Every structure is written in C-alpha cells, then in structure tokens.
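User: Teach me something about this protein's shape.
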Amino acid sequence: MDMPLEPANSSLPASKFSAIKLASRLPNVGTTIFTVMSALAAEKKAVNLGQGFPDFDCDPALVDAVANAMKSGLNQYPPMTGIQSLRDAIARKIESLYGHSYDPATEITVTAGATQAILTAILSAVHQGDEVIVIEPAYDSYVPAIELAGGIPVFVQMEIGPQGYSVPWHAVSSAVTAKTRMILINSPHNPTGSVLREADIEALNDIVSGTDILILSDEVYEHMVYDGARHESVCRHADLAARSFVVSSFGKTYHVTGWKVGYVAAPPALTAEFRKVHQFNVFTVNTPVQHGLATYMAEPAPYLELAAFYQRKRDLFRTGLKNTRFKLLPSDGTYFQCVEYSAISDMPEAEFAKWLTAEIGVAAIPVSAFYNQPRESGIVRFCFAKKDETLQSALDRLASL
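Assistant: First, the predicted structure itself:
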C-alpha cells in the first residue's frame, strides 16, 4: 500500500522528512522553454505561435466516431498492441503510401502518442553505455529518453546554409563508433521545417549498411511536406525499414494533439522487444479513440489533403512575414516557420523571444532551446497551425518589425 510522504497525523517532526534525499534520474531537466513562453504569452495576452498545436477543431466526424464507440460500449481494455482494426488500417495506409508491407499482428503497435513511442523504442533497444546519435536541433524528449535508458547521446549539429538546415552526413559518419546502437532521425523536422530528401536517405543507408545500428525515425509530420515533394519515409527503403522503429502521430495528422495516440511500425524482432516495454509503461491505449480512429481512417482524404491545407497557411504566413525585417528560412515540411532576426536585434534567442512576446505581442520559441548546449544562431520558430485570423493578428503585430 502506498503511503504519503508526510502522513497528516504523523507525530514525527517535519525535519525527519525534509532530510530525505532523492537522486534525480534527470538532474539537468527543469522547466521547459515551452512552459515559460506559454505562461508569458498568457500573461501578456500575446498571440501564441510558440507551442506546436492547432487552435482550431478537428473534423466533427472524427469526434462522432469516437462518441459512437463510447455509446456502443467499447470502453474496456483493448489488446495491449492496439485494436485489430486500427492496426490493419495503419498497415494499409503505410503500404499504400510507401510500398512497404507491415504485418499488423507482429509489426505495428498503437501507442499513447509519439513521445511515449520514442521513449519505449529507446528503452527497448538502448542499454547502459550504448551511444545514440542525435542530430541537433532536436525535439526535447530525445535526450532524456536516452539518459533514462543509460545510453550516451552523441550530438551532431545540422548545418545552416542558403537553403536552410541540412544534415552533414559526413559528421554523422564520423560520430559512429563501436558503441553506436542507434541513430535518431526526424523528418519532416521539428523545429527547422526541413525535410530529408532521397540523397539524405541514401547517405544514411551507406552509414549503417553492414552494421547492427538501429534507426529511430520520428515521422510525426509525415503528411506535411510541401511544394509537391514526397515524404521520404524509411518505410520506402527496405534495407532501412529492416532496422528501424518508425513513429507517427494521429494527433498531428488529425488536429487532436490532446488525444495522445500514435503508433510504431517495426520488424518483428524489434516490435517484440518494443512490446515488452510498452506493456509495462502504458499497457494499452484509450479504447474508444482507437475505434474512432479506425473508422475515420477508412477515408484517406483527411491525411492525403493535409499538405495542401497547411501549405496554404504556410504561404499566408510567409507572405505576411515578408513585410517585416525577418529573414525567412525554408519551411519544406511540418507546421513551423523559422526566421532569422539579425536585422531586428542582436539579443540572444531566448531574450529576443521574451521581448517579442512582451513588447510585440507574439510568442515564438528560440531554436537554441533545441540544443543540448544552447547554440546561438539568431533564429526563432513560429507555429502556423492556427486559424487564419490568429495568423493575421500575429502578422498585424509583427508588421512593426
């Protein structure tokens, strides 16, 4: 039976409890910049283009599908791996888009969002002292997950050139050692909005060919690739798929980030180890939401049309930003736009983001927050997954710059 740390009727002095020490598993983790900026945006009544979630509703048909599942009595534990109909729908989608056939029974697992999927994949494959290559800037859950597994993150920084951010594959290759267990990739990429092209995938394949290195491919923005380009999922490439955990997110695809449902596709041996961890850190995922998603996926239009939906918003936002002194970096995927602000200020990124929020009334996120050791590039990130009127309100305020 769990007991509270300080029972209400304890006769022991408080000092006895204050002496208790706990060594942190994550001693370097504090309040995230996302929490700081959202709190500041609320305090200053700023337009919040910082955190990456929509301010508009999902398709009512999706809500109806979930509600119908609840009303039909589908409210008890589902199978640990996810309900059959949803895993079948995921497998059909992947094969239709990327040409790779996954067995829903042994190769697809429904997860409580992508962050849980990433943590579980790392815990299942990375052991004490194993090295994991992390390409920076990187989503903030990667490094804590590696550290919780006892792994050692090895950092390679993206290059910033005239065409925006790119991965220096020669540096990735140089970072590989006999201890390298995994390379973590993310495309479309948060926070930079860059995407991996076929040449990038070929370079990655050359690096891992003939090794036991695994790939963890974070593809949560898979349906947000613009200007006619295709998403280069590792699922398209048989040699990489054979060594990869591929992660995606229904929250990003269907505008329901708060539902926290995603999935992992991986070959049987990797999935077996993944599920050993999954069954004890989550076990199962919300039953009626799974049934609602399975029903909704019968119509592929919502994800097939997502790129056009967000490209229009991207173009609206970029057109407005051209009236400012921001320098726009390419946004080839995701719903993020990075801008360089040297023509406006020489403040460090975090300080500039706070000034922008407090004085101009628009919240952004400093890209330096996505590095293990903050790197100053004079770049902040906006999220354009917002109503048109929200974006226009932000642009009106930014026009003074």
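Now, about its shape. The longest strand covers residues 180-186. The first helix runs from residue 14 to 18. If you'd like, I can walk through any region in more detail.
User: That's plenty for now, thanks!
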